[in-house]
Amino acid sequence: MFSLQPRVQGASLFRIVYVAVATTLVTLHYSLLVLGRAACGRLGREQVDRYTREWSGLLLRLVRMRLSVHGTVPTFSDGRRYMILCNHSSHYDIPASFAALPGSIRMLAKKELYRIPVLGRAMRAAEFPSVDRHNGQRARDDLERARAMMESGIVLWAAPEGTRSPDGRLLPFKKGCFRLALDTDAVIIPVAIRGIHRVLPARTFDLNLGQPVDLLVGQPIDAAAFHERGLDALIGEVRERMQNLLEPAAPAKVEAPAKEPLALS
Description:
This is Phospholipid/glycerol acyltransferase. The chain crosses the membrane at residues 12-35. The longest helix has 27 residues, at 13-39. The protein is 38% helix and 15% strand. The chain contains 7 helices and 11 strands.
């Protein structure tokens, strides 16, 4: 049957190089914009929010991603502390989340990212918190700073798996972000991104263009309700919700598609 939908296709070597170079240049451009505004004392959260969404939209267009959003998307405007916990199976999880979700979202990042020239300085200026997972005291200090950011209205995005899944299946969860959620009585928004691992499978250069990707937003989880039940119960609840979102056989867990489609073109 003839279809007007764009076809998924493996990228040629030329296209892979083009996407890599363009991604680097786009990231450098927005990093320099952030640093330039910060140097002039004119960098506000609204500008950072706009830059991260523009950057994300450009990266998704480079790979022709067909991103659909499903579920009830929070506005993050009620004054509560929020964390977005998302499965992690692609470098594109982050731009997909930034493009799809509202609010002042900042990624809870690994310390290693801040060693990248220009990008690391721009992330610090843009209030992206980091966690040094190899130093216990430093990690606790980092999480305290992340908590202060949440208190001021930033929505933290974190991948509890800590590393990319090669096949889209959930890996074991690390506990750091869940401790932060309990300490701050945060509202956790579970997010599952289905099909994104095929765009650029982990630890490969097998880029696939035109890949359909579904970002599914689950029902909120109030971490404050888990003080008595404990950390493991909270981890188990989030994992179960995320797994239900990832399973195609469980559509009842997902609300109607978001009313406003993403403007990626």
